[in-house]
Amino acid sequence: MSEQETERRALIPYPASSPARVQVANRQLAIAAYLKQDIERGRLVAILKRISSDDAASFLSTRQGLDSDLIGRFADRWTWSLLQANTALPWSLELIDRFVGRWDWGSIFHGGLADDTTLPWSIELVNRFTDRWNWESLSGNEYLPWSIELIERFADRWDWGGRMDGGRYAKGREGK
């Protein structure tokens, strides 16, 4: 092919679906996404530098995907009630077990972890922390892997009196 022909072909646009154009577009999108993430990270750091460390810990507790090592490194700084509400946490049996004494397991007024919808619910999870759960709340958690085995295994712990209102304890409430 002559040099003139090569130059002429270079001026002809690729079809929109050509593999070369798709690759170029994908690279450009990846670069743009990286730059956007970098800008957002810079804004976040600037905000965190301007607020108190307690406010920063509260902010990060609720909004950021934090791994077990980072949580452990700053265990005394987190707002644990906010941290456990963070839907970006990488919940696992190991994470729960590692910080077992720091989680809010619940009370008669609120369900704590027992009401959480993002935990990796399993019979093993329920069994491992049998003595910690708020069983009134756990009894109404629709995200449990409900089965005959689960019900029978913990038959003496379930709140058989009934619950209402999306997980709030409702025993003794009349007409609702």
How would you characterize this protein structure?
This protein is an all-alpha fold. It folds into three domains: 50 residues, no CATH class; 40 residues, no CATH class; 73 residues, no CATH class. 48% of the residues lie in helices and 0% in strands. It has nine helices and no strands. The protein starts with a helix and ends in a 23-residue tail after the last helix. The C terminus is likely disordered.
Question: Helix and strand layout, with pairings?
Answer:
Layout: H1 3-11, H2 19-50, H3 53-63, H4 68-73, H5 80-83, H6 93-98, H7 123-128, H8 135-138, H9 148-153
Please state the average pLDDT score: 80
Summed up, the domain count is: 3
Number of H- or I-type helical stretches: 9
Order of SSEs = HHHHHHHHH
Instruction: Report the C-alpha radius of gyration, rounded.
Output: 26 Å
Count of beta strands: 0
- Note the beta-strand portion: under 5%
Cα end-to-end separation: 84 Å
| Alpha-beta content class | mainly alpha
Main β sheet profile: none
Approximate helicity band: 40-55%
The coarse overall form would be: elongated
Q: Ranges with pLDDT <50 over ≥5 residues?
A: 164-176
Short description:
The protein is 48% helix and 0% strand. The chain is mostly helical. It has three domains: 1-50, no CATH class; 52-91, no CATH class; 104-176, no CATH class.
Using brief descriptors, characterize the structure shown.
176 residues; mainly alpha; 3 domains; 9 helices; 0% strand; elongated
